[in-house]
Design goal:
473 residues; mainly beta; Neuraminidase; five-stranded antiparallel β-sheet; 27 strands; binds calcium ion
Amino acid sequence: MKHILSIIMAATLLSGTSLAQQAARPEGQGQQPGQAQPAQPAGGAPPMQAAQPGGRLPGNPQVQLVKVADGLIDPVNVVSARDGSGRLFTVERHGRVMIVKNGQIQKEPFLDIVDKTVSSFLEQGLYDIEFHPDFRNNGFFYVHFAEMMRNGDSMIVRYKVSADNPDKADPNSAKVIMQIDQPYANHNGGELAFGPDGLLYIGSGDGGWEGDPLEAGQNLGTLLGKLLRIDVNTPDNQPYAIPRDNPFTQPTQLVQLFDIPESAFAKIHTYAKPEIWAYGLRNPWKFSFDRQTGDLYLPDVGQNHWEEINVQPAGTGGGQNYGWKFLMGTHCFPIDQPNCPAVGIPPVAEYNHQDGCAVMGLGIYRGREFRELNGVYFVGDYCSGKVWGLARDGRNQWAFQELIDTDVQITGGGEDENGEMYVTSCNCNYGGPAAAENPPGSLWRLVAAGAVRQNQETAGGTPIPQPTSGQSQ
Ligand SMILES: [Ca+2]
Ligand SMILES: [Ca+2]
Ligand SMILES: [Ca+2]
């Protein structure tokens, strides 16, 4: 059963607006989802557009979630080491990484940093683990978490697997890669992923509260509200290096003042943080690279009205502005503005808060078992439990289709070594008890609906047939 209270709480608080503030809104100011005004591009260009639910995916896929394991403490992510071992590593928010082998959670954690992790607010904790592309040889992996001694600031730390036990991290192997100061407890981003270029990408939220009060999203002088890109293949006395082709690095050639146009000189942002790959983000909690194409799928959690999914095709240089806090999806922020300038790059898909409250990216299916799911990017919603698919249709337009409305609180997802897809769910609420006191969460596998066997427990809901009429957008 869905937790109605949690849905109400999450719909308001995840987005940073308290119930008291909502109640204090003047009459007529509380717009319903879907009534937001579209952004207006300059020069009479057509309004920004993004695919919305109602599209039709090629191959008419239908999906269900079947249970793999139970008894996890607020699981928020599931990861493979890509080392041939077939192990799944499930991230527990309070600060543990548990190995799941053949559907069984191993008794001993792979990593236990509970005593270093702040998880007292629902958006804090251990966010992600990511294994080095050469983990099989070097044993390195990276974690991102809210650090106890620094009052919840974001820490990215490299650890190494134990020399004598592949199912155990070496607790004494920590190397600090990066610390990001956090002004508020919410919007901490969290995702870590190595791109096809071998560089580490980091999701960093706008700092928190609501409405980006520090204006971090558009400020190139802060790491908050960004997608970051760093090179972690450095000597142990150097935390990381800046890739030379990051978009806001100081040009390596000699800079002339008088022999170049002023406009060219103005593009040299010496105040910009060179770690920045893309900006204008609110809370990039989950993103994924397509293992086949290298395309980047980058959802951004919205505030009270719209959730969005951005796509960055492989080979695109960085520097993209994804619009926050001027825009949320293709719509003005704040939402009750009559119109607003179109800023940056619109998402390829969006949904409003009648369908949920916070987008959770799951990944691109590249497994072998369900051919009809091949190449589909899946997202779920934390409040509604709905799952959608996103892919290009027969006309090469983005199609965004609701596939199932489950009964679980979706928190994240990931792939195993073969590209099969998994989903995590919690029974966790804003203002709820400590993580370890919540009812346990679960690990699910995303399968084609026709493959569900009678004895398998599902996440509920009925696979939704494709609409027979209406245009995919
Ligand atoms: Ca990751
Ligand atoms: Ca924060
Ligand atoms: Ca955006």
